[in-house]
Write a structure and sequence with these properties.
Blueprint lengths: L1 E5 L6 H10 L5 E4 L2 E4 L8 H5 L5 E5 L11 E6 L2 E2 L2 E2 L2 H13 L6 E7 L3 H8 L5 E6 L8 H15 L1 E7 L2 H14 L4 E4 L1 E4 L5 E7 L4 E6 L6 E5 L15 E4 L30 E5 L13 H7 L2 E4 L1 H5 L20 E5 L5 H7 L4 E6 L12 E4 L2 H19 L2
Parallel strand pairs: 5-8, 5-10, 8-9, 9-16, 10-15, 11-15, 17-18, 17-19, 19-20, 20-21
Antiparallel strand pairs: 1-4, 2-3, 6-7, 12-13, 13-14
Helix pairs in contact: 5-6
Length: about 400
């Protein structure tokens, strides 16, 4: 990258106004005979190419080449609460193990807390090479500032190549804080990851509302950091433990926080669609919100969780936490029934790894049919009652 610099000695009022007319992003401001460039600049270089010669100049940013050999291993930050490890941790371990095969790096887990050795033993059963623990009473409650200082100490000690965090509410707030401390970048909400043989991480995530997939590559910054959505990858397989637990110490003087813990209030656990075993997903084919009552008998018989697509969120029919897709949640139920869903790529990416997929749509060319185990071409208002009746018949036959 680089920046545009203005040679003020060559600027006149006319030249300033000419450049303001040329710029498609309104990036120029002319105040008190001084021409400046504001934050709207996209470095498109239009002012350099079409503006008066010598007034605007593109200055190439000097590329600082890092020594990749100094940075090793993939680290998974272990998220936990009440002595229970969040399952996204095991998914990250599984993905890190796959990536590490390309670079022959270790997969390590970073576990911060109090009385965490039992959890560390659990992590070893998932095949990590090392579990690094910071075990102090001061870490009993999650304090974002203290925990960030620990990660900084860990990186400075071991020069980790890659850090992976779950894109959970905690991970989404914690990872940016760490990135700022380490003066590095962070790619949020990744849906895919890949690794080059030289240790460069390829981070892939949806952008522009899920309409494109952006591939982020940061060859000259370490550590490389990404948050990854829950249910995007398979959990690591359990193995006979072979790794080791390493206890780390950090000087108390390096630990300071402006956060004062007052109390913890546990809110009621909601029915998270990411955890559901059976899902009935509904789309824009439903004409009225009241028509959703049509699926209630089916939901009760299957003990299913109801989910939806983005258009129904925008209509206000559902809470955003019920949305499946790249801009919603990723799911892997044993059974998913898609009712009247168009099959946009954003939706498919969020549920394609489900077990049994049944899709109902009037369009016989619906893209969901390509990944479905059973495709039913028909009107949902006719098919849903038929499905309900079919399940009743199956239950009756099973008792014969």
């Amino acid at each position: 990258m680089g920046e545009i610099k203005v040679n003020q000695k060559k600027v006149t009022k006319q030249i300033a106004h000419d450049l303001m007319d040329i710029c498609p992003f309104n990036a120029f401001e002319y105040v008190d005979d001084y021409l400046s460039i504001n934050a709207n600049c996209r470095v498109c270089k239009m002012c350099v190419k079409k503006g008066p010669e010598g007034v605007c100049e593109f200055i190439q940013e000097e590329q600082v080449q890092i020594d990749r050999s100094k940075y090793k291993h993939l680290c998974v930050f272990v998220e936990h609460q009440n002595q229970k490890i969040h399952p996204v941790t095991f998914e990250l371990i599984g993905k890190a193990q796959t990536l590490s095969k390309k670079t022959n790096e270790k997969v390590v887990a970073l576990l911060i807390g109090y009385n965490v050795k039992e959890m560390a033993q659990t992590l070893l059963t998932y095949g990590v090479d090392e579990v690094h623990i910071y075990d102090k009473k001061i870490f009993n409650e999650f304090d974002i500032e203290l925990y960030a200082s620990v990660v900084q100490h860990f990186f400075n000690t071991y020069a980790i190549n890659v850090f992976l965090y779950g894109a959970t509410p905690r991970g989404r707030s914690f990872a940016p804080r760490v990135a700022a401390k380490l003066k590095t970048g962070l790619t949020a909400d990744c849906t895919m990851l890949d690794m080059k043989e030289n240790g460069d991480l390829l981070q892939i995530r949806p952008a522009f509302g899920g309409n494109i997939m952006a591939k982020i590559h940061t060859p000259n910054h370490r550590p490389q950091m990404a948050t990854v959505r829950y249910k995007m990858f398979d959990e690591a397989k359990k193995v006979e433990p072979f790794g080791v637990i390493i206890e780390n110490k950090i000087d108390q003087t390096k630990l300071s926080s402006r956060v004062t813990f007052v109390e913890r209030r546990n809110h009621e656990i909601e029915n998270d669609i990411s955890q559901a075993k059976v899902i009935i997903a509904v789309g824009r084919a439903f004409k009225k919100q009241n028509d959703l009552k049509l699926i209630e008998p089916l939901r009760e018989k299957l003990n299913a969780t109801i989910a939806c697509t983005r258009p129904l969120i925008e209509k206000g029919w559902f809470d955003s936490r019920k949305q499946i897709g790249l801009s919603g949640r990723s799911v892997k139920p044993d059974l998913i029934i898609n009712l009247g869903i168009s099959g946009a790529v954003q939706y498919i990416e969020g549920m394609k790894d489900s077990g049994l997929i049944i899709s109902v749509n009037k369009d016989e060319n619906n893209r969901l049919f390509d990944i479905s185990d059973y495709a039913i071409v028909g009107d949902i208002y006719e098919v849903i009652p038929a499905l309900d009746k079919l399940i009743d018949q199956m239950k009756e036959n099973s008792h014969v």
